Amino acid sequence: MTKHKRNTIFKQLILNIIIPVAIALTVVALVNSYMLFDIETSNEEAKNELVTDEIKNILEFQDVALNLIESNLNAKIEDYSHRLITEYFSDTKNIETADLYKIRDELNLNPKLFDFYIIKSNGVIVNTTLKSDLGLDLFSFGKEMQNKLKTVLRNKSFLSDHFETEVSTRKLKKYSYHATIDGKYIVQIGMYSEEAFDISEKFVERLNTISAETNIRSIDLFINPEQPFSKFSDATLLDTNHINMVKNVFETTHTYITFTKEEGRELKHAYVYLGMGTASAESNLAVIRIVSDITDSHILIRNLMLFSLLLLILTLGIMSRFFYKKIGKITLPILHLVQKAIKITEGNLEERVEIVGDNEVTTLSEQFNLMVQKLEHSYHEIVEQKKDLEDSIHYAQRIQNAILPPKELRQRILPNSFVLYKPKDIVSGDFYWIDEKDNKTLFSVVDCTGHGVPGAFMSIVGYNGLNRAVGDHNKTAPGEILDDLNDSVTGSLRQQEDQSAVKDGMDLALCSIDLKSRVLQYAGANNPLYVVRSCKEPHLEGREITITNDNYNLFEYKADKQPIGSYLEHRKFTTHTIQLLEGDAVYIFSDGFADQFGGERGKKFKYKPFKQLLLSNQQKPLEIQRDLLDEAIEGWRGELEQIDDICIIGIRV
After folding, report:
1. pLDDT recorded at residue 278
2. How many whole angstroms separate alpha carbon 74 and alpha carbon 163?
3. Residue 444: strand pairing partners
């Protein structure tokens, strides 16, 4: 029997749809692209190249002229600088308050052409005849300026710089830098030149002439890669986007283009890198901004695009009638398959796809039905397994709840107290422990490694260890109890000083209190103790206030920086003895509250706000404090997941 060969969906699409549509779209795209390319690119690129070459020629001429002017000024400005250093500022004791105006008059210098600046070693102008520059930080001008000033100071030398464009006036100004004899200051002279003014004005006139001869609105030359500004005019960059474009041109030397609208006209901003090997440092690195009016050319381009669109619509209309019947045979089975897939993803696993046709969609439908059948079988197995697992975890929860002290016990031996206990999962790695021994009440908050089932297993180990230390070994001092607990956990988990050992453990705070004498003893493994006392009462002896408000002070007792368990060598835990007063409040806790993410920025709650929250609630009963803490952390968490178990115990004596 001969096997029937099915037609492929791919072949049907290629023959009936893809090829005709591709041909039509290709023809339209070629016509449109040819028109756009011919109109837009060639003219604009040629115009920008001509303008750039013209500006290069002008700048080369300007640099030659400025070099001639500088050669006549260098000796003069060096002589003035030398006189300032040797005659006026040989002693820099009063240099920051010296009358620079008077000194300029004594040197017979034209105040319209000369300015003096006193620059401190940190780059800040501390005295000047140009008051608008007082306090200016020259180091902020970039690394080049910073290195220049530091070199002058280090070598205690004189430096005459090239003409530079002054930001505030856009005029060319020549600067010199001369370190004082003690190397603590730089005396700077800034000098204008009428000849340099004339050269700059000629450049601007030529730019205006170029703009008038074309559709160019304006031409500007921007310098200073770090803080770009126009070299010859008050022109500014439009916004942050344009500033970043200029900086990118400086960095990459690539041309960047952007578009804006002004009074109904469309403007094109071309930023072109200008690199030259001239003597002037400013001309070596510059960016030309050419603003062109492209409104008319865009109108023409839009008309061409409209024509192309109409042609495309006409072509597709003719093709639609031709392919209408053929498309149904191809798309309807696929659409039916998609609809069934959507229903199945919504949980309707009993849905099946109808087998239609004789092509690849038919094969796909058959395999899809087989896949759904297997998925339905696996789903029911998973449901059963999930139920068994949840039943086991809930049973573990009942076991774990059985080790927690009952409320009646807490109310009897710690009558004025609260417990805030919020497991992250069904079972918890945090637990609290309360016991009494030799007329003392012991209570602890324990944070085991991990949370959920792993943490719950560790909590059983910690619970048994505490009971053994107090009940079997008769330990009552918190530090001794923690030492005993550490030995118990290490032995239970067979922790050794090797890489294969179990490194799980727990952090905790443990307290022992004599409610009659109000003497409290505390020891901690990484978890501290907070004591809150009224501002009217004496401070805790030997303790500084950690945080305070108008009514209460909070004192913190640091824990030993080591956990219970793990293979590291342990030191003996420290027992702190504290004499409490009536009305004092004591808090121990795990790290889950402070580490919870939330708030507007999704940050941790942290310990300082936690301390402030405890102080602000001090005048309220402890049960109310518990509710307020719960509301605070839930409000902070919002829609975010609880990341760890939370446990807090508070008592008042």
Report:
1. 46
2. 11
3. 433, 510
**Tens-place pLDDT, residues 182-200:** 999 999 998 887 777 777 6
Both tokens of residue 42?
A: 């060639």
Q: Which tens digits make up the pLDDT trace of 106-149?
A: 999 999 889 999 999 999 999 999 888 899 999 988 888 899 99
> Residue 233's closest CA among 221, 249, 216?
221
Residue type, 274: L
Whether residue 168 contacts residue 190, with contact meaning beta carbons closer than 8 Å, is answered with no
Q: Name the one residue in this structure whose structure tokens are 């402070």.
A: 594
Nearest to 172 by CA among 128, 133, 223: 223
Considering the entire predicted model, what is its pTM?
Answer: 0.47
DSSP bridge partners of 275: 285
Report d(CA 282, CA 222) in Å as an integer. 9
Token representation of residue 205: 């006139």
Residues 6+ apart with CB under 8 A from 414: 434, 441, 443, 651
Q: Cα 35 from chain centroid?
A: 46
SS (H, E, C) 188-245: EEEEECHHHHHHHHHHHHHHHHHHHHCCEEEEEEEECCCCCEECCCCCCCCCHHHHHH
Position 258 scores a pLDDT of 82
Q: Quick check: helix, strand or coil at residue 482? A: helix
Task: Write 635-640 long-range contacts (CB < 8 A, 24+).
Answer: 635/598, 636/596, 636/598, 636/599, 636/605, 637/596, 637/597, 637/598, 638/598, 638/599, 640/597, 640/598, 640/602
The two tokens of residue 421 are 């206990």
- The Cα–Cα gap between 541 and 526 comes to 23
Q: What percent of the chain has pLDDT over 90?
A: 39
Residue 87 tokens, joined = 């005659």
* List of residues 6+ apart from 388 with CB closer than 8 A: none
Q: How many CB atoms lie within 10 A of CB 68?
A: 10
188 strand-pairing partners:
117, 177
Q: Residue 553: what are its φ and ψ, rounded to 5°?
A: -115, 145
